[in-house]
Amino acid sequence: MTAVTPELLSRFDVPGPRYTSFPTADRFVEAFGADDYILALQQRKAQSPFAAARALPLSLYVHVPFCESLCYYCACNKIITKHHEKAAEYLDYLAREVALHTGHCGQGQPVSQLHLGGGTPTFFSDAELGRLMDILRQHFRLEAGGEYSIEVDPRTVSNERLAVLKELGFNRLSFGVQDFDPEVQKAVHRVQPAEQVFALVDEARRLGFASINVDLIYGLPRQTPESFARTLAQVNELRPDRIALYAYAHLPERFKPQRRIIPAELPMGGDKIHMLSRAIEAFMGAGYCYVGMDHFALPDDALAVAKRQGRLHRNFQGYSTQPDCDLIALGVSAIGKVGATYSQNVKTLEEYYDAIDGGQLPVVRGLALSRDDLVRRAVIMAIMCQGAVLYEPMEQAWLLNFRKYFAPEMQALKEMEGNGLVELGEEGFQVTALGWFFVRGVAMQFDRYLQADKNRARFSRII
Ligand code: SF4
Predict the structure, then answer these.
(1) Domain match, 213 and 242 both
(2) Per residue in 14-71, pLDDT tens?
(3) 391 and 271 in one domain?
């Protein structure tokens, strides 16, 4: 850990994307619209014309934009409101949006992965969540053994609500904890006592949820290495199956809520590094496996098993065990991936309702990937998931000479090798243990958009 020196940081801690997609969403263009997306759906349908049952399983994402109160660190697309009647109206439109999608890709398509994110999905009442699941089941076939997950704000659920989620078919929960320290919670306007989270996680285990994830953030106001160490000890005591540890990116010019954070209360870069290294030591010391970038999992959790078996994937929700499936995204601002395309829905409720009232899919922008995009995506995902790229399989899959095609990139990797971040071999290259801290930086070498773009300041720093 001490090998992460200030010199390395000043050289490689540059702003960069998290690569939940490639090309990244900021490269999407408005020239790609609903018609292009419909074409992608129709092409998918044409690949399995006789039986939906034989189609490759889909992934579904549903964005619920409402939250009851504002967390000051928030960078999500959300609407703060206490008017719960808005949820019922939104559900009506979601139902109509689902019908528009399945009108083009076909009814009864198999689904192996569902994720409800937000905002706060548990802003929906139990009855509304039940109705949403009914709508999805009317149009899709949710496969047994699939991964069905929901983000849970501990302040919005009770033991009874957890039982309802289980009953509805969810088998994975993700709790937004961020930090257990009361002072930090006050500074970010998200007060949720540790006892409440412990009681909910206990109950979720008793109910038999297959995997429980906890989200943490380091770099928040009033966090110190000492206070964060206490949170880490509590998280180890809680022992969730998975831990996602994110760095807080303070970008108040982009995300308005962050303007309420007092800059003087933010930990300095050195303290952030200290918190990250202590977190890694604490979780590894407690038996967690380092899955990659910001994810840890217990050795018998599906994510850790997939990592060991080289089956890890990456999608808009982060790391996943599910193969690279098409993703249908529902709701405002949601991003989908069908075939060699990405598409994103409009960001405001008004535009969303207008599009659906007009009988249109609410796609506002997207991208049809070129062959070069697809090659680079394969390389970037191999770096982010396996931390390694083998030349021969890439050459066979894409009919190219890897080291010639990526000559400038390989040159840049040599510099990273000199700093101990990657090892270059005859058959491929791999990210070192130290290099995992800068894995985004390794992937960035293959991002031709970024290399051509001088304006990188809009991304968060790596650490
Ligand atoms: S962090 Fe999550 S719960 Fe908080 S305001 Fe943002 S979307 Fe809502």
Answers:
(1) yes
(2) 778 889 999 999 999 999 999 999 999 999 988 865 565 567 899 999 999 999 999 9
(3) no
Asked if 322 and 113 count as a contact pair (C-beta separation under 8 A), the reply is yes
Distance in angstroms (rounded) separating the CA atoms of residues 419 and 434: 9
Say if residue 28 is in the same domain as residue 144: yes
Pairing relationship of beta strands 109-118 and 79-80 according to DSSP bridges: unpaired
> ∠ at Cα 41 (37, 43), nearest 5°?
115
Q: Is the pLDDT of residue 2 over 50?
A: no
Residue 396 covered by a domain: yes
Question: Using omega within 30 degrees of 0 as the cis cutoff, is the peptide bond preceding 119 cis?
Answer: yes
Q: Is residue 46, in this structure, part of any structural domain at all?
A: yes
CATH number of the domain within which 380 lies? 1.10.10.920
β-strand 388-390 against 172-178: which pairing, if any?
unpaired
* C-alpha span between 306 and 337 (Å, rounded): 22
Domain assignment of residue 211, yes or no: yes
Question: From CA 342, how far away is CA 326, in angstroms rounded?
Answer: 10
For a mutational test of ligand 1's pocket, the pick from 70, 122, 256, i.e. the residue with the most ligand atoms closer than 8 A to its C-beta, is: 70
Q: Which two tokens stand for residue 22?
A: 């490639």
Spacing, Cα 81 to ligand 1 middle (Å): 12
Residue 384's domain spans which residues? 1-21+370-452
Torsion of CA 310, 316, 322, 323, to 10 degrees: -70
Residues with CB under 6 A from ligand 1: 67, 70-71, 74, 76, 78, 118-120, 153
CATH code for the domain of 323? 3.80.30.20
Cβ atoms of 16 and 440 within 8 Å: the answer is yes
**Same domain? 142 vs 246:** yes
User: Whole-structure pTM over 0.70, yes or no?
Assistant: yes
Number of domains in the chain: 2
Q: Does residue 335 lie within any of the structural domains?
A: no
- What is the distance between the alpha carbons of residues 282 and 238, in angstroms, rounded to a whole number? 13
